[in-house]
Inverse folding.
């Protein structure tokens, strides 16, 4: 700007119009970082502080005044102060009247106070227009510039013009404002940064329970049983062999659990004869975390692949194979080639690879940036058609792996079947139900229900007129 | 809000200004879901229905009135009705005059009607301001809240103020509006949700054709030939060995086909002496689906890696290696170590790994969210420089794999060379042409052409002044 | 539109209001592509050209006039001309007065001129309102339609209304405008497209140096040493064995270097007794490129995994294992099974797999689209907790791999220890320091400092009131 001779031009005087000063109450870490960022984006900044003469390390170019003086200088005041210390604002009611107060505070616990901080602020300073914003952005991210354009800033407030002005500032800082409606939404917005993977809990707990159960199951069959009957120390199996039983079983079970709520919902709709009755809460919640279930399953499948591929590197395997060859060499016996075994063995490996490949595809398309580039029809094609194909391939992989020895009584140890037999229960159930549901007669009824038809209703026509 | 004493304050009265009522015609699935979402975001909702007394399961808080009454209550009317039933709107022409009608409808087929639904609606109710929006969002996504901020809502319309208001609503719902211009764009917007991977068709069909051809080629060489001459049953090779020939060949061919249109275009530009003549349509289309070609190639490369890594686990391989060792042990002969074989073997494996690694890098950078964080220069560096390096490494991998037996007449079966020889044709062609194109004399001419120079033109200077 | 009878309706006349004509000076490649795109989005386009009668291949529907005539037709003029040829604009000062000039130019080098092109333009035509925009978008992307909604267009300018209008056009073209403030930002915006991975340089150079050093270290130990003492040709080891030493060491070292700046910063804060003093520049820069360091480390880890998994396919390994078995078969000696070896071997493999799995998880969550869907707490949980767990697992993997032979004098060759011993230096240092830092007494002080407490300050209370 210095290089342009602006003084002669009435037009460029406009250019300063955006550069309205912004006032920040509080010189804490977040207040400083936000102020620095705003300065960099061209906003003059005035800090309000209890002890303006003591403030250190504030960004260069920012003014520091008392709360009262600072508030006078700007229309927009960012309250970068903990909720516990909001009381002093009541003394400033007059000067704050009509101004936009931006509440950026967070709490330490979810639902810590009966009302949200922003609503509390609005009560304290009834003359001001309170907007909730910036609480999801961290001081560190502001300082370091590690901000993506799509980093969301949730904004809410009762005054739409105040909100619009705050959202303009958010946009200028290179962030994406997201209007969440009135100040009632402040509670949800304040809880958001305190969440720790709420949708992942059920899948993770479920898989942990499954893993622990399967671990003991396998330890009994593969470690304790041989120790009791053959006095053989097989504890080393706990590092690789047993996990490589647990992981694929967990993966397949979780994958089947992704598709179980869908078929359950279909049965429920068929039974009720309408889609216009809410599902039970547990089913709703289950359907909402299918993506997470699937991704956890993919994690276990990935581990299974790695554990399988290292097999030939293991000392135990090399020792065993070496011994077999040595025995054969000494015994002068031929080891005839079995085409059936080769077929079975190659088939289950190939099925597993193809299943894993499709599974990885499903995982990639569930990345937010990928799923945003496909339309609804494509998304459903992938998640439903490809998903079922993956389930079929993985189930077939397990079935062929079992092969002839499947349910063979000789494989029972203390009446316990091999662990992989357990892996097949849920997938096979899901696939059988799905097979029944796509029988033409049942599928036709289901499709009609999903298009709005109701078995016991006269408003059936509704579904044909309206979208 | 209940907690704030708003009655005394003229300021917060503004807060209700945004909460303009929205009217929804039609109580179908989509109408209900959209209404519920809007209610949650603070908009009062009025439903218009043929039989308002019969409506069930509408979201709590929504009013249901006759079409006429509902239309009176709001400026913005969402027409959640199938196009076939739009006729009744002609009776409401008066009350709809000047109002914003939002067409959310979709068709069952691409280009089902001569004009788009939104244009048809504008014809039916000429006094209304029609805006097309929301047709790409699914009822399920609205209901379940499975919406990302970047989920795009295409908006178009002839009245910019009407469009702006609809886009504000879209933003408030947490969606991203995308202005696509005038109502002429409605046709394209209505076709969008009906598409099923249009850019992926050519790559997928092409790779399917390649795979089928290679499958028969390999079956003839590896299954039928040994059966005819040695009566050996090698059908089990169809599970892993033959796919592991097909996949790498398809991957390498497709990867080369990613770079073939680029060199073809360069030759065409050199021949024509200008870049200002359109390429033939097939070349344009080919260039637009290079990313998809590359990703399909990456899929096949991934399968090739998995199929290769499971080799030592296979029964057939273990049986064969065991037999070789047994024979050697019995024969009392030494098996001397060949440094050349070790070199060749390790080299082609290492080349393959490095090629695959770069290929995965290329794939990751083609993810939308990653490619958006790099600038144009970085994107071209990756896709062009790293891309060619990948092609070179993968071609070298195949060449060294062939090694000494490459084109050896002893490897011909029924005059057919090994399948991998076929894999080299296109990659080597592309690399040779590229090598010629980067010769200084040719590269200089090409660069001048690409900067706007024309061989037979006086407007050559243009290219130097203008960008 | 043709199908609607608009003539009778005053309302739809508004519909043309958006369709303000846009003028483009310059008919070069970018000018044409931008004009075509704008035409498609419904803007009438007028080209300004030195020789309007000579222009070829301009998009259909665009008018071509002299500069003067074209400028008269529109409020917004896009200057698609190289900076070197801006001079002629001084002659048009009058007609350009008050108009919006959009500077779309780029330079060939970073900081090529003392002032940015946009500032230079503002100096040349002082009466115009200059806005910088579109310079990050390529002509090819505009032509081919390969544009994502999140493709960012940086916009800056001194006149906020002019900027707003340009941003509206950007949005209509389906791009995302990003307001970067006043024209002072033009310099940065013009440098942006010229950057080539600035954040990746340090990690890549560092890993290159590490790799070269380790290569020579390993060649001395594994190739030259055996050649000198046993006259054995081990050069073939350079293809796979030696890289498979280099890659894991580099990966582990880089991973530790991701966490070293964090503990260094903590020590510095503890020593200074405040967090309000800037870190040295090198530490700041190091902290900003931790993500890139981690991703490069992940790349090396990925290579290590692939190089390890191919081990049993290698000719050398098969030859060696075959020979061992043959020798054993002939010698009539038993090869007793060692449970300890099995344990150690399986444990280091399992630790490696789990470490790699968590490492991949870290990599996936650092994808922009994934990290945008988690809140700050979740992001820190992953990058800090899971990150340290990964480092612990990978360090343990290396320690157990070393096992009993770790620092065994017999493994020294020319006094050089095995390469993996070098890999442990930095990771173990980081882990030991971290362990000390999380001792309750030290952790408590550190937490207080990070909440704003200062050892030698009275303003300690500040940190408790303000955020």
């Amino acid at each position: 700007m210095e290089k342009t001779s602006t003084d002669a031009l009435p037009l460029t005087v406009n250019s300063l119009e955006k550069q309205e000063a912004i006032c920040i109450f509080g010189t804490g870490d977040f207040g400083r970082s936000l102020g620095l960022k705003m300065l960099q984006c061209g906003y003059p900044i005035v800090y309000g502080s209890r002890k303006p003469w003591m403030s250190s390390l504030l960004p260069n170019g920012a003014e520091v005044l008392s709360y009262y003086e600072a508030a006078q200088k700007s229309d927009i005041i960012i309250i970068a102060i903990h909720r516990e210390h909001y009381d002093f604002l009541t003394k400033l009611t007059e000067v704050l009247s009509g101004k936009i107060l931006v509440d950026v505070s967070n709490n330490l616990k979810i639902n810590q106070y009966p009302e949200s901080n922003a609503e509390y602020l609005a009560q304290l300073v009834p003359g001001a227009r309170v907007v909730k914003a910036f609480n999801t952005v961290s001081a560190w991210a502001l300082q370091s510039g590690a901000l993506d354009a799509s980093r969301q800033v949730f904004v809410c407030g009762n005054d739409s013009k105040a909100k619009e002005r705050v959202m303009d500032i958010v946009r200028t800082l290179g962030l994406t404002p997201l209007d969440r409606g009135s100040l009632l939404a402040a509670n949800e917005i304040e809880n958001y940064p305190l969440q720790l993977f709420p949708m992942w809990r059920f899948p993770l707990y479920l898989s942990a329970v499954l893993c622990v159960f399967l671990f003991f199951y396998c330890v009994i069959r593969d470690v304790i049983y041989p120790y009791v009957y053959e006095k053989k120390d097989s504890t080393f199996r706990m590092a690789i062999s047993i996990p490589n039983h647990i992981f694929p079983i967990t993966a397949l079970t979780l994958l089947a659990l992704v598709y179980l709520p869908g078929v359950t919902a279909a049965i429920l709709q068929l039974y009720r004869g309408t889609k216009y009755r809410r599902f039970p809460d547990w089913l709703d919640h289950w359907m909402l975390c299918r993506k997470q279930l699937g991704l956890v399953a993919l994690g276990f499948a990935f581990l299974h692949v790695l554990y399988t591929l290292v097999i030939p590197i293991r000392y135990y395997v090399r020792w065993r194979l070496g011994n077999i060859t040595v025995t054969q060499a000494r015994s002068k016996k031929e080891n005839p080639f079995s085409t059936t075994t080769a077929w079975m063995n190659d088939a289950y490996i190939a099925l597993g690879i193809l299943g894993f490949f499709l599974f990885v595809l499903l995982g990639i398309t569930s990345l937010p940036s990928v799923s945003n580039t496909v339309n609804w029809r494509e998304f459903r094609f992938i998640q439903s058609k490809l998903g079922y194909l993956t389930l079929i391939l993985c189930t077939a992989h397990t079935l062929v792996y079992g092969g002839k020895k499947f349910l063979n009584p000789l494989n029972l140890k203390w009446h316990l079947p091999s662990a992989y037999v357990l892996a097949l229960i849920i997938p096979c159930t899901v696939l059988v139900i799905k097979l029944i549901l796509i029988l033409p007669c049942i599928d036709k009824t289901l499709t009609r229900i999903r298009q709005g038809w109701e078995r016991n209703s006269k408003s059936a026509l509704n579904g044909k007129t309206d979208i």
Q: What stands out?
A: Chain C has 20 helices and eight strands. Strands of chain C lie at 22-25, 45-49, 63-66, 76-79, 100-103, 129-132, 152-157, 176-179. The mean pLDDT of chain C is 84.
